[in-house]
Structures are given as C-alpha cells and as structure tokens.
Amino acid sequence: MPVLNEEKVLHKTLSALNITHSEELIVVDGGSTDRTVSIAYKFTDKVYVTKKGRGHQMNFGAKRANGNALLFLHADCFLPPEGFRIVREVLKDENVSAGAFDLSIAHPGLHFRIIEWGANLRSRITSIAYGDQGIFMTKEVFDRVGGFTVMPLLEDIEISRRLKKIGKIVFVRPPIRTSPRRWLKEGLVFTTLRDWAIALSYSFFNVPPERLVKYYEDVR
Hints:
Blueprint: E1 2-3, H1 10-16, E2 27-29, H2 36-41, E3 47-49, H3 54-63, E4 69-72, E5 77-78, H4 83-90, E6 96-105, H5 110-126, E7 135-138, H6 139-145, H7 155-164, E8 168-178, H8 181-186, H9 188-205, H10 209-212
Parallel strand pairs: 1-2, 2-3, 6-8
Antiparallel strand pairs: 4-7, 5-8
C-alpha cells in the first residue's frame, strides 16, 4: 500500500483488512508530514519510508514482499471480505497476467452508480486496470514486466499496457469500495470528465504524464 498523508482514512482502511498468517501487509510511505506512519505501525511492522511517487513506492514494497501474489491497494479503498481468496483463485489461471476488482464508490447517490457503471465498462472494454481497483498479479509476472514505471501519474495504465501483452487482465466481483472524496471535493462532472480526458490524452494522443499531472490535484 503506497501512502502519503493519509491519516484521515488509513486507520479505517487497515482495520477493514482481514490479515491472517497467509498474508503480509506492507505500507510504503512517500514522506508524510502527518500521523500516517505511526498509524501504519499499529497494523504492521513492515512500514517503510521512501521518496514520493506511487510507482516508486509500489516497486519498493513489491521487492520486500515474501509471497508470490502481489495486491496493490490504495489507502482509501476497501477490499470485499473475500478479496484475498479471490486474488488467489484468479492467479491460478496461467492465462491470466493480472486482475483487478470492479469499482464501487462509497456514496449512496444515484449519480455515483452511473460513474461506477461507466468506469467498469471502460475497464472491461479496454482491459486497462486502474489503481483504485486493486491491481493484483504474481510476483513472477511483476518482475517479468519490470514493475511499475516511475512517472508522475498513470502508472496503472502504463503497466496494464504491458500486462496485456503477456496475458489476460480479468475483472472480478464483488467490487472494491473507494472513497468519494475526490468527486465530493472537485465536483462530479469536473472530476469524471477530467479523469477521462487525462486517460484519453495519454492512451491515444501520447501526451506525456509530466504535462498532464498539472491538471490532477492531490486530494486527501
């Protein structure tokens, strides 16, 4: 789990994870100035502080994982109760390079159901897994594709492109739940259209992430 100044949500997220002897929790902090690190230590001793950058942080954590199944989870996302079992089952298929969960947004508003439907349809049509969907793969596959590219944003789209070349990316249910905080702070229409525009600009017009990042605000 890559984190940065997530004290508002981290305790709730980590409390919801049913970590057993079969799983290990690795939290990689990018230089938080709040209580993120101390909160993480309440749940695992595998807490590391490194330089900021989600791609770098996830690579850093993956190198320190002992297991063969890697699940990359954002700090404001909640796995379904059977999430770990689903990951293991999916990764038994040798034709699968990676997987991710369908997305749900933790808000009762009907407009959020429309956003979910669009996001899940987009993922299945394009076979692109996004970070807030809980991307997972074996460590062998992760090493084979070279891990995440260190870039300002869109590292999820970039690694999905490479994963599609070596196998199928599958999307599973029950969905992962993500916080509505970005939509609530920036506005539903603006956030949805901005995110789609950034993804399209990178995927189809090869606009560098270094140019696109100025349109994407960090929301905590």
